[in-house]
Specification:
Number of domains of chain A: 1
Shape of chain B: globular
Number of helices of chain B: 8
CATH topology of chain B: Butyryl-CoA Dehydrogenase, subunit A, domain 3
Order of helices and strands of chain A: HEHHHEEEEHEEEHEEE
Order of helices and strands of chain B: HHHHEHHHH
Oligomer: heterodimer
Number of domains of chain B: 1
Structural class of chain A: alpha+beta
Strand content of chain B: under 5%
CATH architecture of chain B: Up-down Bundle
Largest sheet of chain A: 7 strands, mixed
Distance between the termini of chain B: 37 Å
Structural class of chain B: mainly alpha
Number of strands of chain A: 11
Distance between the termini of chain A: 66 Å
């Protein structure tokens, strides 16, 4: 008789994949059920977005105050998206603002302790979005996370100087590949990072948004053999 | 998890690209789960189709504070249960559909990885519904036993018992056949 573990392994191996024909059939019906919303797909695909999500404290650890998006905020246009106040995050530690505008929809999350005036913060975010569209922001730091050789996550930290002289530093997501959707993987990597600096892979230089950055790289290896390389870049001229 | 939260928000806002990503991400997972639960390719396809169509139609009314994958898995379980009940009303059971060892190959469009998997899927079909559900949800659906207890509305100890008895029974059914 097979041991229970072997049976469990065999059951886990059951895999049922959709063929191309089945896939096409399924998706056609699903898209039809969406009342023609598929048309939005093509239009939306190239939209520039900024996202941050309502999430639990653990999840916030992933992106801190990042704006996760599919591209830099480089849209040219006179119409600046309107930013609305959404409310607080599920755990009450962050304020969430919702962007709706020509450059795409998005979410921005601000540390609840740092927001003393919601309306002022909302106006600041609109001003920052405007500045961003004009390219008036300073790139302070770049973070890249590669999983098994492929860059999975990229964050840019920018400094904005508002009209009244106040400055805001904010992290904007340039890429989220989904490699850390696995909660266990994310937690293990976090623990490794907290435990020590990782294997030093030295430094390298690269130009980001027209500025020369020096990247310090460190390697972490998870229990399942996944290799993670974490690079942090700072401007060479700022050192 | 991070991506799923974003997908939920985008989907609620009516974004078709979010729906498409959800579909691509969970299609095979849900098909596998539906197959493990029903042991029938056509049923699995129909169930996943119905789940996604219903999900799509929920549109802006969609409200989910929990895990998207677990939610979709629950939808699949409920629909498979409905189909199994309907089959039983017609006097058919899952294991009567097919002998354990068979030359049957699923028709085009339904690809179950290999003969071993087919054999195991057929053995699963011979289990009582509750045991099969626990095993499929835990091993194929990657749900925790605690989550399954909530879904089945029974104590955790009952779920553990169903799992253990189910595995023992599978060992017995598959003994000497693999």
């Amino acid at each position: 008789m097979k041991p229970a573990e072997e049976i469990e392994r065999l059951v886990k191996q059951i895999s049922f994949k959709a063929s191309h024909a089945m896939d096409e059939h399924l998706w056609t019906n699903i898209a039809r059920a969406g009342d023609g919303r598929t048309e939005e797909l093509a239009q939306d695909h190239r939209n520039i977005r900024r996202f941050i999500m309502r999430m639990s404290a653990k999840r916030i650890a992933i992106a801190a105050l990042a704006l996760i998006g599919a591209g830099a905020i480089t849209a040219v246009g006179v119409n600046v998206g309107r930013i609305y106040y959404w409310g607080t995050s599920a755990d009450g530690t962050h304020h969430v603002f919702y962007t709706k505008g020509p450059s795409g929809d998005g979410f921005t999350m601000m540390d609840a302790n740092g927001v003393t005036d919601v309306e002022q913060t909302r106006r600041d975010l609109e001003e920052m979005q405007n500045l961003s569209q004009q390219g008036k922001k300073e790139l302070l730091r770049v973070e890249e996370t590669a999983i098994n050789g492929t860059v999975d996550m990229k964050m840019h930290e920018y400094k904005y100087t508002l009209a009244d002289g106040r400055t805001h530093e904010i992290r904007e997501g340039a890429k989220w590949g989904g490699g850390f959707d696995d909660k266990q993987r994310w937690q293990e990597w976090r623990q490794l990072k907290e435990a020590g600096p990782g294997q030093d892979l030295g430094t390298s230089e690269a130009t980001v948004e027209g500025r020369l950055f020096s990247f310090k790289r460190a390697k972490y290896v998870l229990g399942d053999g996944t290799e993670i390389i974490w690079s942090v870049g700072t401007p060479k001229d700022g050192q | 998890m991070f991506e799923d939260e974003l997908l939920k928000l985008k989907f609620k806002a009516g974004r078709v690209d979010a729906l498409q990503r959800i579909y691509e991400k969970y299609r095979d997972y849900l098909l596998t789960l539906a197959m493990a639960l029903s042991n029938d390719g056509a049923t699995a396809e129909d169930v996943v189709h119905d789940v996604f169509v219903s999900f799509t139609q929920s549109g802006s009314k969609f409200q989910l504070h929990g895990n998207l994958r677990a939610y979709l898995a629950t939808c699949v379980v409920n629909r498979v249960r409905d189909r199994i009940r309907a089959r039983k009303r017609q006097g058919r059971t899952l294991d009567e559909q097919m002998p354990l060892e068979s030359d049957f190959d699923p028709p085009d469009g339904r690809i179950l990885s290999d003969e071993r998997s087919r054999l195991v899927a057929r053995a699963l079909a011979r289990l009582p519904d509750e045991q099969r559900e626990v095993i499929a949800l835990h091993l194929n659906g990657q749900l925790k036993l605690r989550e399954i207890a909530r879904l089945q509305n029974v104590p955790l100890t009952t779920v553990r018992g169903r799992y253990r008895h189910g595995i023992d029974r599978l060992r017995s059914i598959l003994n000497g056949r693999l």
